[in-house]
Design goal:
The chain has one domain. 11% of the residues lie in helices and 40% in strands. The longest helix has 7 residues.
């Protein structure tokens, strides 16, 4: 996840596939501008707002 901050845990399922669990607190939106999305104070029971999900799309790496 690059410069994202949080807790990361890995387990292996019975077929040998690795599964990553991520609890993140800081997600880079536009790293060059220093824009980060902080998730520390949000209500954990509510899903992310659509504008937050759309902002995450700006950080895609193109092949």
């Amino acid at each position: 996840m690059g410069k994202a901050a949080g807790h990361f845990t890995y387990i292996e399922d019975p077929d040998g596939t690795l599964i990553e669990f991520v609890e993140t607190h800081k997600i880079p939106i536009i790293e060059k501008l220093g824009w980060y999305l902080s998730l520390k104070n949000r209500d954990r029971e509510k899903p992310l707002a659509n504008w937050m999900l759309n902002m995450l799309g700006l950080n895609k790496v193109k092949d």
